[in-house]
Amino acid sequence: MTSRRTRTTALSALALLVAALTGLGLWHAARPQPATPQQQVRAVAGTLRCPACEGQSVAESSSDMAAQMRTVVSDQLAAGRSPAQVRQWFAQRYGDSVLLDPPWRGPGLWLQVLPVVVLAAGLLWLVAVRRPAWRRRLAAGGVGLLAVAVALMGAVALHRGDATQPVATAATGGMPRAADPVQRAAALLAQGRPADAERVVRPSLRTSSDPRLLLVHGLAQRQLGDAAWSTTLREFLRQAPGDPAAARVKGLLAAAGH
Amino acid sequence: MRARWWVTGVLLAAVLGLTAALASGFGVDPSTQRTALAGSTAPDLQGATVAGGRADLAALRGHVVLVNVWAPWCAPCRDELPLLADAADRWEPAGLRVLGVATRTTPKAARALLRTLHAEQITSIDDPKGTLAVSWGASGVPETFVVDRDGVVRARRVGPLTPEWLAQNVEPLLGTS
Question: Quick check: ipTM above 0.90?
Answer without folding.
Answer: no
